[in-house]
Structure formats: C-alpha cells, structure tokens
Amino acid sequence: MTTLQSPRCLISHITSFKKHLTPSFRKALPSSLHLHIRRHSTPMASTDATEVSATENSETTSDVLVQYVVLRRDLIDSWPLGSVVTQGCHASVAAIWSHKDDPHTIDYCSPTNLDSMHKVTLEVKGEVQLKNLSEKLKSNDIAHKLWIEQPENTPTCLACKPYPKSVVSLFFKKLKLCK
C-alpha cells in the first residue's frame, strides 16, 4: 500500500478533492471529513505552484476508489477455502448494496469502472480483532458491513463501502494482506 508522503501532499490532494465536491456529495460525507476538508482547504504558503501541480496529478491518479475486505485468519486455517471466500463475498455485496446511493459506490459500480474495481483483502487474527476493527471503523464514521454468519451468529469478516484510498487506507494500514 502507498501512503501520502507529506502533509503538503495531503493538503494539495484535499484541495483538489474539494473542487470536485457537489452539494449532494458533501452531505454524504461523514462530519469528521467535513471538518478535515475545511481545516485544510488551502495549500501551505511555502508550497510552490509546481510542487502542488505535480502532487495533485500524482495523487489524483493514485487515489482510486477501493473496497477493503477483512477476513479472519483463524477461519482461513480451519474452514474450506470456498466457505471463507463466500463470507467475504457476502460482506462485500452487503456493504455495496447498503450504500448503493452513495456517490463513491455509484462511481465504483458504474459501467465504465465495472471491469477495473479495486479491492484489498486483508486478514485479522480472529473474532476479537475483527470486532475491534469494526468498532474503530464505526467510531470514525467509516461505513462497513460486519458479516455475521447465521445461524451460528459468528462474525466472519467485514467489508467497507468503496472509498477513495486516501480517505480509508489509514484504518487498514496495520493489517496484513490475506495470503
């Protein structure tokens, strides 16, 4: 995963991002992101125009819409592979369908993007870590679906709705890629 290199990159990216916000899209953003965008809506005085322009171009092309799917390692080791994949599919579809009117989801599922979706599949150690991650996402207004398999009532995985990578990757950066 790539991360933003400096605060200047973040500020110029948010400035670029803010230019494209429609009123209906702004309403869909979590309130914490509104504050963040307002706080950093102008570039730093010491940033020269060439640096901002280059940063905006590189950040815009690398800030793809992405859906994170997180599976439990203990289930990967003990359940049939197909069953674990099915859990991830359930969570992914549920997260997308629950947010079908969200601008990012609409863009992610648009006919022009349908063949180039970006998903990152990560893993956590077990149920406790999965529940903790869900609580962390919930407390930060990151929309996601914690899939609970029935009738066992077992949390098996989670998936977030599609987000720009720069908005959501921070919450998943400590997790390992699922192998």
UniProtKB/TrEMBL annotation:
<dbReference type="GO" id="GO:0004045">
    <property type="term" value="F:peptidyl-tRNA hydrolase activity"/>
</dbReference>
<dbReference type="Pfam" id="PF01981">
    <property type="entry name" value="PTH2"/>
</dbReference>
<dbReference type="InterPro" id="IPR023476">
    <property type="entry name" value="Pep_tRNA_hydro_II_dom_sf"/>
</dbReference>
<keyword id="KW-0378">Hydrolase</keyword>
<dbReference type="InterPro" id="IPR042237">
    <property type="entry name" value="PTRHD1"/>
</dbReference>
<protein>
    <recommendedName>
        <fullName>peptidyl-tRNA hydrolase</fullName>
        <ecNumber>3.1.1.29</ecNumber>
    </recommendedName>
</protein>
<dbReference type="InterPro" id="IPR002833">
    <property type="entry name" value="PTH2"/>
</dbReference>
